[in-house]
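Notebook entry, structure prediction.
Reason for the run: the old model in the group folder had no record of what sequence produced it. Starting over properly, with the input documented here first.
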Amino acid sequence: MDFGFTAEDDAFRTEARAWLAAHTDRASDRRTWERALGAAGWIGLGWSEGGYGNRTATLTQQVAWAEEYARSGAPPRSGHIGENLLAPTLIAHGSDAQKSRFLPPVATGDELWCQGYSEPGAGSDLAGVRTVAVREPDEPYYRISGQKIWTSLAHEADWCFVLARTDPDSRRHHGLSFLLVPMDQPGRIEVRPIRQLTGTSDFNEVFFDGARARVEHVVGGEGAGWKVAMSLLGFERGVSTLAQQIGFAQELERILRTAVGTGAASDPVVRDLLVRQWAELRAMRWNALRTLGGSGDPGAPSVAKLLWAGWHQRLGELAVRVRGAAAAVGPADWSPSAPYELDAAQHLFLFSRADTIYGGSDQVQRTIIAERVLGLPREPKGVV
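New structure, fully documented this time:
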């Protein structure tokens, strides 16, 4: 791997690897694990402003940490939404008071966040948001009413950043605001888990019925929600992409071992598919490294999403193909009313079906590339 890593970067990588090796097995639950990461200074490595993070790290050191974390087998992060989405957004658009209030608890792992963007009628077309936030006369807060969906980790989160319409007469991307909302509001906020094909419930529906958000917790000012929201979406791509690819490589390695064990690797078509997956993953890695520092290309995030989503979906198909008939066998004690256990190949196949939908569907990504990069005529929008 050649990305300008220095001796200091290698030392940083060694420190990260050693810490993870010593602490990963001690993780009792995800919230305790977040606090352990915070106490050791591993949250907020990329925050360069104000000293709100635990330690500073160069871009290459952030890459090293993300890759070592993916390799270590450490638990999935509960704090990544606060660290990687909310924090850089506050650093770019938040007031000094907002930064002082919200960044330190993220850095220590004490407050977890979820993202209130998508709605039943505003998923890929985010400008169709209908959740409303009404300023209470002579009161220091807004009352929020509406529904959000596909809200990852809402069942664990302490706070939610919510995109809501503060101007009732506004249309599309106008009149929206970005509000920071506490989740502990019984009777005003209801979280309903959504059961997935895999039998698990990683994301949720969230219903707001007069939930309160304080006036001083509007980021960027009232009506600036679209600008802030789009800025946040730009932070979804970056160092985390390279860490994701480490996980992809581990999945591909397991599939290769299975193919050899089942004899599927003797099929020349399967061998060709395995080699193709390996080569495309290498190409994605080099593309991610090329664009890591920010290329200024408005289509780069969409190209990256198209590449990895289709690749990972094909990997899921390959995972069950090399298993043969055994991939179609479920647990003997399966029940429609209870969660069920899947093996790694089955989980990968089922979960990856959503890769080309969430985070911006393939159709949306192609539209962005067509309009913003190629300069093609804009797609007609329906009347709302």
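Summary: The chain has three domains: 7-107, 113-223, 239-373.
The old model has been moved to the deprecated folder.
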